[in-house]
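check this:
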Amino acid sequence: MISSYPPALGGTENRAARLAEELAHAGFPVTVLTRRNSGIKPGENNSGPIILHLGPEDGGFPGNLLFYCRVFLKLLSLRKTYSVIQNFLLSTLTPLCCAAGALAGKPVFVSLGGVGARGGLRDDSGTGRFANAKTALLSLFKPFFITPNKDGLRELLKSGIPATRAKLIPNPAPTAEFTPPAPQEREQLRQELGFNGEIFLFAGRFVAEKNLPLLAEAWKIFSTAHPSARLLLAGEGPLKDSMKELVNSLGIENSVSLPGAVPNLPDYYRAADFFVLPSDTEGMSNALLEAMSCGLVPLVKDISGCAPVEDGKTGLKTPAAASPGQFAALLERAAALDPHARQKISAASARLMRESYSIEKITAQYLQLYYGA
């Protein structure tokens, strides 16, 4: 159960789709209940899980109410066809899933997206009496909670969730689609994409928690000594226009590009030199997992959502509260890596994704949790 589903863009949407498709591929019947998103025909299915679109994309209060009613009734009508209810993100849908699960005699699992008010246990999309009702229902039905990082797990336990109902399962890395470049492929891709000099790549949404202004200010410092280096900010989001204005005001527009959402993102990962993620908070960045799967050296802050990055081994880190100067020092440290050290980190990064974060490994952890409920 998820409010929006691919082709809708978002890390949670991708995580839900990858889990659903892998479970279906493994032979488990999977039904996804979601809204109707633009570009999807009502009732359309894909090659794996069954996708049921139960509501308008945006219908205001009447549309939301209709969607919630349809979800609740569909969960009850399908109760003989499923064993568990998997809900993604804490929302108004969560208590509906819990109530339906109680009536149907099915365990409910809630995958959180992060910590606190950003996808965590305190994330509250409701207001007033609706928010209070949601909290009361969660206390009554006691679902299982899944969080992608250690901070999220600590938050669950601190909030009184029993350890038997709180589980850390990281987001899956798409290691089949996102792979390191083959010999000679990287240079060919760089020529095709017009890459010259060292390429620092960010991929993601232009939202406040990504703290892209910090990266821009750090880049102004760094690029003074590295005029041939280039920064690519790939993606869309509500803060993209303001980011363009900041880039121009800082006078770094000649070395910074904003290409938008690129359709061939794996090629960008394979052709770039470094992946840059200046986020203040992350549940677990799907873009980070994609970049590491391609063997790109990640440059991140020391936050719980960037746990796959071990400083000096699978990437480079700077303090969580890094200033522009400190983040510029991180960029400088990356640029100073010799080819052998860079290749060593690249290989370790891709290997970690294959061995510990592949969709097969993560799905097995979900199945173990489901069977133990």
